[in-house]
Amino acid sequence: MNEAQTLAYVHAAAVAVDMPLDGAQAARVAVHLQRTAAIAAVIDAFPLAPHDEPAELFHPAPFDQPR
């Protein structure tokens, strides 16, 4: 997303969650969102094969049964 699209997204998301943001606050959030997206792009560009990072299995803890 470009800067204008990111700022529009921030405004729309703030409305969706009923979070009032003034223009300066929305601009700061948009800057941080773009930085995060840039970091994610660098990480996402690193080539990984499936065996490089195996997924862990989720095993929920057993709950004690009421007696």
Question: What key phrases describe this protein's structure?
Answer:
mainly alpha, flat, 67 residues, single chain
Give an overview of the whole structure.
The protein has helices at residues 3-16, 23-45. The mean pLDDT is 90. Helix 1 crosses helix 2. It is built from 2 helices and no strands. It has a domain at 3-48. The chain is an all-alpha fold. The radius of gyration is 20 Å and the shape is flat.
Helix content: 55-70%
Largest sheet: none
Which blocks of ≥5 consecutive residues have pLDDT under 50?
Answer: none
Oligomer: single chain
Overall mean pLDDT score?
90
Q: What is the overall shape?
A: flat
Summarize the structure.
By secondary structure, the protein is mainly α.
Topology overview:
Blueprint: H1 3-16, H2 23-45
